[in-house]
Design a protein that fits this description.
386 residues; alpha/beta; Rossmann fold; four-stranded mixed β-sheet; 44% helix; binds magnesium ion
């Protein structure tokens, strides 16, 4: 079996670290040839100790850069667009991952996307660039990996609906009136998944599922009204596809990102023993609940943005990144995240985004407007100006 040569973008993030762990475990199938991290040069150097031959790039170092490590956005894009790679994994970095993603789209290799923000911001641009260069996009997000697995070997014309499952996050049973003032620790206490802070807060607001609806639309070319979300607290079913004959195919497994990471890095081959198997008798029961939009208003905000289209999802995504960061810094309350994102995206004008410049303009406008609203909300929270 051929060895897949892999470049990992976002190597020090949660997805990147788990990807490196998978690559180290399967040296006969996977080889790390390069890694990019955002700011932590020392952490990147530590992560690459088991991979002495891999090239290393740090985008904006905040600490001392070790010898041999390249620096800057251009070097990161050059590595992401390397013709030596069979698979480029993009994980972490939020909107910052867009430029390396577009570089990877031009390679004709496999682009494994874990950073859903890039699909939300620039889904049309990313899919069009990839298909123009013969680049295959494979999902790493667990829901989209599940859908991809359910669709393998099926006629795309026979798909009736995509069904995304959502764990419900830490506030699934919290009394509604307590959610807006929930603390940072409460929002970061995800019941099922081990993930980075940004996505964990997105799971609490359920903006994560909203971003995933948009990601699914672009990855699988399915209209928004045929993409449903259902709460499934056990996270045993990672998502499902309903076909025209009434059959529903679902994919199950323990909630462990190393499974979808390994499947994407290997280009769809199943590597032995990636994660422990799921024992159905231990799961015991599978529960499903409809979405309560009073509990998760952000999901509705994301759907409205998606349907309006153009630059609105990019602006919404940018506003969400700003608002989540402000919440994590203790500057705004939890409930303000969805309010700020709704205010920015509902008022954002719909305009076509077919170029990188247009995507970046929508992103920075959304970011700027959200920063202003964060400032107001922070003033209201503390009662002091500034
Ligand atoms: Mg997911």
């Amino acid at each position: 079996m051929p060895v897949n040569r892999v470049v990992v973008i976002g190597a020090t993030g949660s997805i990147g670290q788990q990807a490196l762990e998978v690559i180290a475990r399967f040296p006969d199938q996977l080889q790390l040839i390069g890694a990019v991290a955002g700011t932590q040069a020392a952490a990147l150097a530590r992560a690459l100790v088991p991979f002495p031959a891999a090239r290393a790039v740090i985008v904006e170092p905040r600490d001392l850069v070790p010898e041999g490590m390249a620096v800057g956005r251009e070097a990161a894009c050059e590595l992401a667009g390397s013709r030596d790679a069979d698979v480029i994994l993009v994980g972490g970095g939020g909107a910052g991952a867009l430029l390396p993603t577009l570089a990877a789209c031009g390679t004709g290799a496999v682009l494994a996307v874990a950073t859903k923000e890039v699909m939300v911001m620039a889904g049309e641009l990313v899919t069009a660039t990839a298909s123009a260069h013969g680049t295959t996009i494979l999902p790493v997000d667990s829901e989209h990996s599940a859908i991809w697995q359910c669709l393998r070997g099926e006629d795309p014309g026979s798909v009736a609906r995509l069904i995304l499952t959502a764990s419900g996050g830490p506030f699934r049973t919290t009394p509604l009136d307590q959610i807006p003032t929930a603390s940072r620790d409460q929002a970061l206490d995800h019941p099922n998944w081990r993930m980075g802070q940004k996505i964990t807060v997105d799971s609490a607001t359920m903006m994560n599922k909203g971003l995933e609806v948009i990601e699914a639309h672009f990855l699988f070319d399915i209209p928004y009204d045929l993409i449903e979300v259902v709460v499934h607290p056990q996270s045993a079913i990672h998502s499902a596809v309903e076909f025209c004959d009434g059959t529903v195919m679902a994919q199950m497994g323990i909630p462990d990102m190393r499974a979808p990471i390994a499947l994407a890095l290997s280009g769809g081959r199943r590597l032995p023993g990636v994660v422990p198997p799921l024992h159905l008798e231990e799961v015991a029961r599978l529960d499903f609940e409809p979405i309560d939009l009073r509990r998760y208003p952000a999901l509705d905000v994301a759907r409205r943005s998606a349907i309006r289209g153009g630059g609105v999802p990019a602006a919404m995504n940018a506003a969400n990144e700003v608002a989540v960061k402000a919440f994590l810094e203790g500057r705004i309350r939890f409930g303000a995240i969805s309010e700020i994102v709704a205010e920015v995206s509902d008022a954002f004008p719909v305009s076509a985004v077919t170029s990188l410049a247009e995507v970046l303009a929508a992103d920075s406008a959304g970011r700027e407007q959200a920063a202003g609203l964060v400032q107001q909300a922070a003033v209201a929270l503390t009662g002091v100006g500034g």
